[in-house]
């Protein structure tokens, strides 16, 4: 009789221990699933933060150029658009020269090398609004479509209006216009950028950092 009781107690102990192990395994599995979900959320936040950090850096570089009162930047995938605010009284040809200087300063940044530089006040306001909309969760696809429309409106054949001053005849009073060789160089660079953005616009990629 005692032997039977001992056997029953041993069996009961084994059953209880097995149930406890299964519960622990279930909890561990839940914890692992939670960790994966959180990790994915962190990656999404890192992508947004990376794009924001890139935009801030481009704004800093653009704002450091003389005669640039303020700047804004929007980074969506592999497309970067930088808007600059200059004095409305500045001659149009000088605005083009300032944009060229901004483009030169952006070249030293990996994401600024192919950035599109604009100086249209209304577009600058819209860029800021679009940046806020991204933070509020607006789909990137909608932003890309609108950004493409803006670029196409400002410069139908090229992705930026950075050298719109090239058709302005030089005058003796404006000694700060771009030399012909620099204009030709800028023209070539913008054509290369146009091919780059047209190729990649349909498949945006969010910048990744190690």
Automatic annotation (TrEMBL):
Positions with biased composition (Basic and acidic residues): 185-210
Keywords for the protein's UniProt record, in alphabetical order: Lipoprotein, Signal
Cross-referenced Pfam families: Spore_YhcN_YlaJ (PF09580)
One BP term from GO: sporulation resulting in formation of a cellular spore
PROSITE patterns per the UniProt record, alphabetical: PROKAR_LIPOPROTEIN (PS51257)
Biased composition regions of type Polar residues, renumbered to the chain: 170-179
Entries under InterPro entries matching the protein: Spore_lipoprot_YhcN/YlaJ (IPR014247), Spore_lipoprot_YhcN/YlaJ-like (IPR019076)
Signal peptide segment: 1-22
Annotated segments matching region Disordered: 169-210
Name of the protein in question: YhcN/YlaJ family sporulation lipoprotein
